[in-house]
Amino acid sequence: MSDPVPNPARRPVPNPRGGGLVSAVTAPAPPPDTAPDPAASSRAPRTRRALRPAGLLLGLVLLAAAFALSLAVGAKGIPLDQVWSGLFTPSGTENDAIVRDLRLPRTLIGVAVGAALGLGGAVMQTLTRNPLADPGLLGVNAGASAAVVTAIGVLGITSFTGYLWFALAGAAVAATAVHALGGGRWATPVRLALAGTAVNAALFGYVNGLSLWHLSTLDEMRYWSVGTLAKRDVSLLLTVAPLLTAGALLAFALARPLGAIALGEDHALALGTRVRRVRVLSVVAITLLCGSATAVCGPIAFIGLMIPHAARAFCGPDPRWLMPYCAVFAPVLLLVSDVIGRVVVPPSEIEVGTVTAFLGGLLFIHLVRQRKVAQL
């Protein structure tokens, strides 16, 4: 009988009970061709960085297409050549009036509001280091809603221009209250989230109570609270344009320090970032952006959640790229959602806030069902 072939996976080890050596089974060494390739592991980030400008250019092309689609599609379809002539060489026809007086203001407001909500979402998610955070977490939507329902039910103000400033003031007061309850200068992302949840619950309870008490308030509030681009005059956009511009400039100025904070506060402090000041300025930027957008169109949900989360998959977590991506792609989503709402149940419309809530709900369910949500 021949000697048994030795098994390379078995090796002698000391017997813990004494008495010599025993045999133990070890895992075989992996074949040489399965070893990780460092070059391949670093190739993906380099490819992503190289494609960032191309993705931003693609976003601008999609934004132009969504802009044209918003002008052409509606209860009455208008060919693109007539849209062009209605914008630049109007002849006084019905189509020219529809394009210039109805759809152009609606589209411009959609671009501005979408960019504001996308930027606000990017700042919020980077600040809290939570990819599922929404600008409404700071109480912006709840504060604006509480102020508007007070203006309508208590003061009798019913015009959009009249309660525009109430919405802005309510958003600012609510965001300030959340920041103070979250610790003020020593606020942390977790405490901000808890404070925002509490303030949102209290303010929405107040809104529901006052709306049920005054039925006329309920009728006015119901139309505003759904979130819509319809029947909004461009003068509202001009009124809040300085606030939107200031919020956008502040958000882009905070991109680099927010990128340091995304690595952790200890790393940010080591890099010389003034964490407390950056956090306060971030809350100001979110309030200016989302408060102004909410004041013009009402609360539009999930834009600030969907766009940063999707953009991060293409440009990475760096806020210096994430914010431009969100400022470009968020208006695309908002305008396309508005167009979908116009054509689903003709001749009626579904408000854009309802469409974005449906799309965002589907995305949120998908994210919740994932085993692990990627962190910033």
Automatic annotation (TrEMBL):
Subcellular location: Cell membrane
Region described as Disordered: 1-47
Chief location: membrane
InterPro entries documented for this protein: ABC_BtuC-like (IPR037294), ABC_transptr_permease_BtuC (IPR000522)
Topological category with respect to the lipid bilayer: Multi-pass membrane protein
Biased composition (Pro residues): 1-15
GO terms assigned for molecular function: transmembrane transporter activity
GO term, biological process aspect, one: siderophore-iron import into cell
Family to which this protein belongs: Belongs to the binding-protein-dependent transport system permease family. FecCD subfamily.
Protein name stated in the entry: Iron ABC transporter permease
Organism: Streptomyces griseoviridis
